[in-house]
Amino acid sequence: MKKFLAILLTLVLLVTCFAACGGNGTESTTAGNEETTAADVVYGDTTFTNIKVGTGGNTGTYFAFANASTQLLATDAYKFEVVSTGGSQANIEGIDDGDYHMATVQNDVMNYAYSGTNGFAAPIKTFSAIACIYPEVCQLIATEASGIKTVADLAGKNVAIGDAGSGVFYNATQILAAAGLDYEKDIKATFASFGDSATQLKDGTIDAAFITAGTPTTAITELATSTKCVAVDLGDAVITKLMNDYPFYTKYEMTSADYDFITEKVNTVAIMATYVVTNEMSEAQAYEITKNLWENEDMATCHAKAAQLNINTTVDGIGDVPLHPGAAKYYAEKGIIEATAEDTTAVADDTTVAAEETTVAEETTAEETTAEETTAA
Fold first, then answer.
1. Which of 60, 247, 276, 374 could form a disulfide with 56 if both were Cys (CB 3.0 to 4.6 A apart)?
2. Phi first, then psi: what are they for 57, rounded to 5°?
3. Shortest CA distance to 207 belongs to which of 224, 189, 193, 233?
4. Are the C-beta atoms of 125 and 41 separated by less than 8 Å?
5. What share of the chain is helix, strand, coil (3-state, %, to 5)?
6. Contact, 227 vs 236, CB < 8 A?
7. What's the average model confidence in pLDDT over 141-146?
8. Are 193 and 86 found together in one domain?
9. How far lies 298's CA from each of 67, 203, 289, 294, in Å?
10. Is 251 in a helix, a strand, or coil?
11. Band of the pLDDT at 29, cuts 50, 70, 90?
12. Strand locations in 174-240, DSSP E?
């Protein structure tokens, strides 16, 4: 009878949960005066044997970090294929199209994607986060010959603002706007990757370039060996406006630890590089990848940026994007996040079953004892 009641209670809880989540499988969002619908997040159960990872340009930190870290994340059951791409937006759209299974993205861009803003025509909810991995520095690099010392000095100059639609592009245009500059009117804008930006700075075809990446960025380190360049201080007013308008920015001080050519601290901002995976990935595989990321002893030394991995703050910059259930399970076990209601219910159910089994065992023992006493009598 007790087991029957426990099963009945569980069924009632499940029905209540489905009703609360909305049984029609859609959620309504409003953009301006138009109402749109986006499918609720749906998770699959696929275990990939070859995980394609979208990164960025092959001279950027995304590409280098992914190559180093995935070698340690690989197991006998699955491997990783690191792909050079156009950056965050291309990576998220690639996951949505099924081209990639995992990617490194900026935390600001992934939130744009999830809400369907800033370059995303509609919300994309086919991906989930597994970890914020390291701060990405918004770098404004100029040639010394350009004479550029402030953001305002960019007016009328030839400036690379990242690949079209990339995270760098949004950082660049937001920084310019905070300084009162319109990228379409006030500068001579060029769309370019990290590598192309460095080449054009070296050739003198551009005066400055925006680069958002972990420092030191290979493209800039190599540039500095042949070209005198400077890192431009954004200034307190621009930084304050950026942080007020966009909460995902944090202040960052560049020093000689970032680049040898920096002799005095340079004030700028940073966002977080984040690993995301397709929602088609199974909970077990996402759990194992997340666990390996934090528990492999060699991870902290696989790349210069890996030293900045911090499990205690890894979910702080995720924003509205959900954690993949596999990652959430791992972080709940480690006490980084609270266990979900489903996990709590499962534990409660297990406890109930265990208690019932103990009661049945005790009753059986008592019956056997009584029978033995009767026989003895």
1. 60
2. -65, 150
3. 189
4. yes
5. 45, 20, 35
6. no
7. 97
8. no
9. 14, 39, 14, 10
10. strand
11. very low
12. 188-190, 208-213, 229-231
Phi, psi of 70 (to 5 degrees): -70, -20
Amino acid at 339: A
Render pLDDT for 215-239 as a digit per residue (tens, 0 to 9).
888 899 999 999 999 999 999 999 9
SS3 of residue 19 by DSSP? helix
How is residue 236 written in tokens? 């307190």
Give the end of a domain, one of 226, 249, 271: 271
Distance in angstroms (rounded) separating the CA atoms of residues 75 and 296: 12
Tell me whether residue 343 is in a domain. Answer: no
Same structural domain, 157 and 238? yes
CATH (domain of 164): 3.40.190.10
Give how many domains the chain has, as a whole number.
2
* 120, two tokens: 């995303």
Structural domain boundaries enclosing 326:
41-135+273-333
Residues 318, 107 contacting (CB under 8 angstroms): yes
Of 229, 247, 271, the last residue of a domain is: 271
